[in-house]
Amino acid sequence: MSKKPLLGILGGMGTAAGLYFQKLLFDACIERGIKRDQDYPEWIYFNASQAPDRTDALLKNGESPANYISNIINRIDKAGVELIVVACNTAHSFYDEIIAQTNLPWINLQTETTNFIKRKGYNSAALMSTEGTLKSGLYRKALEPLKIKYFEPQIDSEIQRNITDAIFNTAYGIKVTGSEISREAINNLQHVVDQIECEAIIAGCTELSLVDKYLSLKADWLDPMKITAEVCADKII
User: Fold this and answer.
1) Buried b (16+ CB within 10 A) or exposed e, 191-218
2) What does R_g of the chain's alpha carbons equal in angstroms?
3) Residue 2 lies in a domain
4) Which helix (H) or strand (E) holds 104?
5) CB–CB of 203/163 below 8 Å?
6) DSSP strand E in the chain: where?
7) How far is CA 74 from CA 14, 15, 18, 63, 177, in A?
8) Cα dihedral 183, 128, 21, 96 sign
9) Do 75 and 92 fall within a single domain?
10) Using an 8 Å Cβ cutoff, are 162 and 192 in contact?
11) What is residue 169's DSSP assignment?
């Protein structure tokens, strides 16, 4: 049997999303017929919870998380990791800074989501994400070569305020409640999806990966975390 690469997973941005990525990877293993403990691939998980806030860095001149994330990647590189996945969409805004300081290849959330959209032949897609991901244009730039109809809200729009509150609100946001999604967050996000007229909605924040089962959706819900977990499984099993 050929040796499969050792995967490193950076979570903690936020913690619930990072743990959920491991569940998605576990589910992908089950779907591929794994039954015994010894059949599962090995991976290393690091809960990189001390990373400076990615959106603050992009919008408010806050501290960049690039050095912190680079340091973590270099630490797990020494443990024998050969591939890395960063379970945070907004952290990918600092990709160029990070790869300049590290050696491990990434399995990139935006790249894999774009590849999925191309394979499935979608003609239109909308993005729901943090303000930081909007500002960096991660998905807009990734999808541009596909020449599809693409929608993302303006940062100062009501739609984006609803998304931001659902993620970050200190009373009911997903960052606070984790997998126990609040009614307020669900209502905010339902109000958003009801206004979107596209074939697919990209859950472009890892916290949003937790919510689709609570929403009434007219469009297909594309979760970059799930898409990327499937790609990871194919590479390491």
Assistant:
1) ebbeebebbbbbbbbbbbbbbbeebeee
2) 17
3) no
4) none
5) no
6) 7-11, 43-47, 83-86, 124-129, 149-151, 200-204, 220-222
7) 20, 20, 19, 20, 31
8) negative
9) yes
10) yes
11) -
Q: Which residue segment(s) compose the domain that 91 sits in?
A: 7-108+227-236
Q: Is residue 80 part of a domain?
A: yes
Q: Which two tokens stand for residue 1?
A: 């049997």
Collapsed DSSP state (helix, strand, coil) of residue 89: coil
pLDDT per residue as tens digits for the range 179-231: 899 999 999 999 999 999 999 999 999 999 999 999 999 999 999 999 999 99
Q: How many residues does the chain have?
A: 237
Total number of domains constituting the chain? 2
Residue 53: the pLDDT is 96
Name the one residue in this structure whose structure tokens are 């499984």.
233
Q: Between the CA atoms of 152, 93, 47 and 15, what dihedral angle is there, to the nearest 10 degrees?
A: -20
Q: How far apart are the first and last CA of the chain?
A: 11
Q: Which tokens is 113 given?
A: 């989501």
CATH value at residue 71: 3.40.50.1860
